[in-house]
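REQUEST FORM: STRUCTURE PREDICTION
Request ID: SP-0412
Submitted by: Lab K.M.
Chain count: 1
Length (residues): 487
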Amino acid sequence: MREARTRSPVEGDPLAPLADATPELRALAASVGLEPWIGAATLAVARRLCGAPVGDPGPLGALWFAVADGELRLLEIACQREPLRAAACAVAWSTHVLRHHGARTPKASGAHRDAMGKAGGAGDEESEAQALRKQLAVLVGRRLPDGFPLPVSGPLPRGRSALGLGARVREQLGADDAAAAATAAARACGEAVLALGALVPGVGWDFATGQLHRTLLARIERLSALLGRLPVLRRVVEELGRLDALQRQARRAERGGREAVAGVRVGGELSDALGCELALLGAPETEDLFFQRLVEHRLVCLELLGATTETTPADERRGPAIACVDTSGSMQGAPEAVAKALILAVVRQLVPKGRPVQLLLFGGPGEAEPLEIRRGRQGLVHLLDFLSMGFHAGTDYDTPLLRALELLRTDAYAKADVLVVTDGLCRASAHVAQQVARAKQDAGARVLSVVVGGDPAGVDRFSDQVWLVDPSAPIAGGLDLRQWRSS
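STATUS: Completed
RESULT:
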């Protein structure tokens, strides 16, 4: 029988990166002596699960196919011929099986070991291992390389048929549990793609985007991190829907019509205030509360619509956006979710209209990682990078502001506005604040800051508008963007 050789990846094959396996899989395979074969085996499983030609699975993949054919057939149904699910499924399968593999040589029975004595014990164990390899070779239909670890975590009886040996191997590898873990991974992967599609619809998160496949599969560790954040992604989906609703209501209110009532909103128009708000004026004990709500624009008012013509400001800007996102450690948790929701809202509004968004992910002094999100596959990859990253850096406003000023001097971003998303736990230097003021005057740009659960004083000196976001606001989901003030 021929020796196993790993085939070179096919050009353009979206599953080819799995031939190198992941660092975690390689380390796990090395611990049981299977590192030389793990890449070919994982790639073969993924190809089978998505209906692609398998090629040479190597001795490890051939063994898995022989002892767990039924489980792999079930996984084919779970993957539905989708490469991304197949990749996540294959990695989960390999990880689970390797943890149960065991590279120890089975020991001879006690009676046989006593008969052989100490001198011949080692040779007898080796001969028994060779006999088991021969039986497995019959099962998988190929010769197992010398030194190929036996896929068992305990002794296997000699003298059994190849099929009986295969059933015992399947049991000790935990094939049933491995199939369950791989199915869960395939479902979670599908949920992740659905969540991304709900966040930014119509930009190609589906499985037909080959370049996105290759990028995700080449960074399977980051995909795993993204799957772990599914609860956060679902929350961002909900919050993004509320943001869109608020934006639609604001556009309707600008029309000025008063022919129909669409609902209620929070505002400061006395003529639109509900009767229950005006009733506060009827008692001296509640009169001060009414005037407080009026000054703070927190009266519950009617949302009115009409057929009047909508007017567009003459100085409306149609340029791109530069978004400086604070990635400091203090942004972890709810502020991080809010920051991602805001950026996704901006991307959703601008990118489909051909207006790129330049992200500057800033941390400590000198740290400002650029990610440009625009139409096309590379823009999707950058957006995925942003979604899957964690926030753990320091904080320095000077670096991203100076970088934003450089971008404003380029042709591509000359008409851009600057958005700063932060928790406010920092200050910009006076020198940089003066440069921002001059640049805003020269280029006609605006700087809008969103402070998530922090002190807005740090952004006041360079911002045209400051939005205050409280992640613990009473709105379900914890995102309230209805409060803002101009500097």
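NOTES: The mean pLDDT is 77.
Reviewed by: T.R.
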